[in-house]
Amino acid sequence: MEEYSKYESPFTLTKQGVPHSPLVETGAIICSSLLQLATRPVTDEEEEYESVLNIIRRLCNKEHANLNCTSYQNLRKDIIRLHALSFYLQEKKCFPEGVGINATLDLLLQCLSTEVTCESGAALAATLANGGLCPLSGDQVMSPHAVRSTLSVMQVAGMNDYSRTFNFKTSVPAKSSQSGVVLIVVPGVLGLMCWSPGLDCNGNSWRGVHFCELVQVCLIGVGTKLCRTSALQDQVWAPLI
């Protein structure tokens, strides 16, 4: 896992022959192929996406999370670049065996076209802040280990080229979107989502970034880690030593 802007060309891999980050295009393609493996018992492509969407809805406390068909059709118009990257990854033998490019890209575009509201997005962020346990439903959607990995990726590369500066100023994991969304997670404290469509030169919502930097004093979940007690199996956030 490396910072977002270290490699300008998407046609680069690590020495181990894998993408540098799941938040770049090549990494997203490989993640989609792995999602296909996870839903392998499902044969229909629509059901594959429904399986992924069901997880998203559980993270959001079953609030609004649906496919935006207009966004999906618009993304399909620019699929040539993703095909080129996919063939590059296939040539480098990154794709899992038996996973097709077309089905992988279709699932990726559907995931990219999933829309949520600020309320459902905040519930998702709160679930991540709570170690994968939805605080509203009590549903353990993700394991604490998976949540820690997710938050680490968000902290290193979630805000595009501005990730390092944002991490220095706020020290909290966050993920931005070209739609103007910023998802912020304060581990063990809170999760929130803000939306403002005006983007800065880094592709982040400039109002969202400014808001996070203004309230960074309140984001007190910095330097925490998730510890699981062996006796009670409770999730406890304690300061790093």
TrEMBL record:
Q: Which UniProt keywords apply?
A: Hydrolase
GO MF, any single term:
glutaminase activity
Question: What biological processes does GO assign it?
Answer: glutamate biosynthetic process; L-glutamine catabolic process
Q: Tell me yes or no: is Hydrolase among this UniProt entry's keywords.
A: yes
Reactions the enzyme catalyzes: L-glutamine + H2O = L-glutamate + NH4(+)
Q: Which InterPro entries match?
A: Beta-lactam/transpept-like, Glutaminase
> EC no.?
3.5.1.2
Record keyword Hydrolase present: yes
Superkingdom of source: Eukaryota
Q: Which family does it belong to?
A: Belongs to the glutaminase family.
* Protein's name according to its UniProt entry: glutaminase
Which organism is the protein's source? Sinocyclocheilus anshuiensis
